[in-house]
Amino acid sequence: MFYKKLLLSLLLSTSAVSALMLANAAQAQIIIAPAPPPPPRYEALPPPHHGYVWAPGYWAWDGYRHVWVAGHWERMHRGYRYAPPGWHQGPRGWEFDHGGWQR
Asked: Are 71 and 41 in contact (CB under 8 A)?
């Protein structure tokens, strides 16, 4: 009986810690930049790859300045569409949307 209670207690505390870590990780994903990104760079679109979608390049924020991340091919996910990363002006400054695969 004691071991069952101990095991249940450990499982509950582990679940609570995991939930807090996930919540903090989601909040940590918000990137705010004080200035808008430069205009997108021109990238020559490579020849198509069957089963892949082109993810265009974008400006990322490294904590001090915008840095260019080159485009790349992403393997398609059936039933999903690819949303490219991008910036929008929010109440706290320029906010980065990570994009990715969406249903």
From this structure: no
